[in-house]
Design goal:
By secondary structure, the protein is α+β, with helices and mostly antiparallel strands. Helix content is 57%, strand content 7%. The protein has four domains: 3-102, Methyltransferase, Cobalt-precorrin-4 Transmethylase, Domain 2, CATH 3.30.950; 111-201, MazG-like (Helix Hairpins, Orthogonal Bundle), CATH 1.10.287; 250-314, MazG-like (Helix Hairpins), CATH 1.10.287.1080; 318-363. The relative contact order is 0.05.
Length: 364
C-alpha cells in the first residue's frame, strides 16, 4: 500500500488520520458481500480505480451503512462528499490514486464493541451484580423466552420489533459465550469460527466445485455431509433424527423428523398418499374406544397433517401459530361486543356469540 497516497488523502480531507483507522485496498472488496471491517471505526479504501469497482464497493457498504451515510471521494488534492446512496460512479473520473473515506457509523455499531459491553457487564470489579451471577443453566429460560419472542416478532411482520428481538437473542448467545470464556471452555471467536467452517464445509456447491440439482439436491447432500461428520466424530451410533432437539415444539419436531427422513427417500411418492392417510386416520379416530386410543389416533392425525403441510411447503408451527393469533383477535372482538351490550359472555347464548364471531370474521 502506498502510504504517501494515504497521507495525501488525509491532507485533502483536511483531517489527521483518526485512531483505529482501517486501511484497505478497494480491490479487496471486489468479490465481497459484506464489509470486512468494523463500522464503528473510520475506513479508507485506496485504489478505487474504476466506476465498476466503485459500484461494487457501494453495494458492499450498503449492507451495513445507511444510504444517507456521508462518504468522501478523494483524488489528489480534491475531495467530494456524497451520500452513499447517491454515489454515481459513472460521473466521477476514477484514477488508480482515487481513495474513498468512510467515517465511523458511530459507537456500538460493531460486534466487537457489543462483545466488550457484555464482557464489562460480567467484570468482577465494576460489572453488574445480576449479570455476574448468571450461569449457563440460569440463562437457559431466558434463551428460550427470547427465542419465542423473536418468533412472535417474525410472525407479526413488525420489522422494528424483529430488530429488537434479534438483538435480545444475540445478547443471550454472547453472554453464554462470555461465561464460557471465564470458565476456560471456549470463546466467541471459536463459536463464530466453528459455524463459519461448518457453513463452508456444508456448501461445497457455493464455496467449491460441486454441482447439485436444486434445493432437493442440496438437502440430500447436506445429509450425506452430516453423516460423514458423525462418523468422523465417532458418533456412528447416532441416527439421522438424533440431532433434532427434544425440546422443540411438537409440530416443529414432527416436521423436522419428516424433512430429514424425506431427504434420504423415506417419503410418499405423491401427495395423494398423504391425503389418503389423513382420511384413514380420521376413520380410526371415529373407531377409537377409549381415551388412550383417541389420544394415540389424534397424535397420528396431527403427524400426518404436519406431513401435508410439509408437502405444501408450509411451516406447520407457523401456520398453527397464525391461526391461534387470528382466533385470539376474533374472540377478543366477541368479548368487546358483549361488553358494549353490557353483558357477560357466560350469559350469552351460543347463537349470539356466533353472530359476533361472524362479524369479527369480516373485519379480522
Amino acid at each position: 500500500m502506498d502510504f504517501n497516497l494515504v497521507s495525501s488523502a488525509f491532507d485533502a480531507l483536511r483531517i489527521d488520520p483518526p485512531p483505529g483507522l482501517t486501511l484497505l485496498e478497494a480491490q479487496s472488496l471486489s468479490l465481497k458481500h459484506y464489509p470486512p471491517f468494523p463500522p464503528d471505526m473510520p475506513a479508507l479504501l485506496v485504489g478505487v480505480d474504476s466506476p465498476e469497482l466503485a459500484l461494487q464497493v457501494k453495494k458492499v457498504l450498503l449492507a451495513v451503512y445507511p444510504r444517507e451515510h456521508e462518504i468522501t471521494l478523494v483524488e489528489g488534492q480534491k475531495s467530494q462528499v456524497e451520500s452513499l446512496g447517491d454515489l454515481q460512479p459513472s460521473i466521477f473520473d476514477f484514477q488508480l490514486s482515487t481513495c474513498l473515506y468512510i467515517p465511523s457509523l458511530g459507537e456500538g455499531t460493531s460486534f466487537e464493541s457489543f462483545a466488550e459491553i457484555v464482557a464489562h457487564l460480567r467484570a468482577p470489579e465494576d460489572g453488574c451484580p445480576w449479570d455476574k451471577e448468571q450461569t449457563h443453566e440460569s440463562l437457559r429460560k431466558h434463551l428460550l423466552e427470547e427465542s419465542y419472542e423473536a418468533i412472535s416478532a417474525i410472525d407479526s411482520g413488525d420489522f422494528p420489533d424483529m430488530r429488537e428481538e434479534f438483538g435480545d437473542l444475540l445478547l443471550q448467545i454472547v453472554l453464554q459465550s462470555q461465561i464460557a470464556i471465564e470458565e476456560g471452555q471456549f470463546n466467541i471467536s471459536q463459536v463464530i469460527q466453528g459455524i463459519s467452517s461448518k457453513l463452508v464445509r456444508r456448501h461445497p456447491h457455493v464455496f467449491g466445485d460441486l454441482k447439485l440439482d436444486g434445493v432437493d439436491g442440496v438437502l440430500a447432500n447436506w445429509e450425506k455431509l452430516k453423516e460423514t461428520e458423525r462418523k468422523d466424530k465417532g458418533q456412528n451410533e447416532k441416527g439421522l433424527l438424533d440431532g433434532i432437539p427434544a425440546a422443540l415444539p411438537a409440530l416443529s419436531q414432527a416436521q423436522e423428523y419428516q424433512d430429514r427422513a424425506a431427504r434420504v427417500g423415506f417419503d410418499w411418492p405423491e401427495i395423494e398418499g398423504v391425503l389418503d392417510k389423513i382420511r384413514e386416520e380420521i376413520e380410526e379416530i371415529k373407531g377409537a374406544q377409549n381415551l388412550e386410543e383417541v389420544t394415540a389416533e389424534l397424535g397420528d392425525l396431527f403427524f400426518v397433517l404436519v406431513n401435508l403441510a410439509r408437502w405444501r411447503k408450509v411451516d406447520a408451527e407457523s401456520a398453527l401459530r397464525g391461526t391461534n393469533i387470528k382466533f385470539k383477535k376474533r374472540f377478543g372482538y366477541v368479548e368487546q361486543g358483549a361488553k358494549k351490550q353490557g353483558r357477560n359472555l357466560s350469559d350469552m347464548a351460543l347463537e349470539e356469540m356466533d353472530a359476533l364471531w361472524n362479524e369479527a370474521k369480516t373485519v379480522l
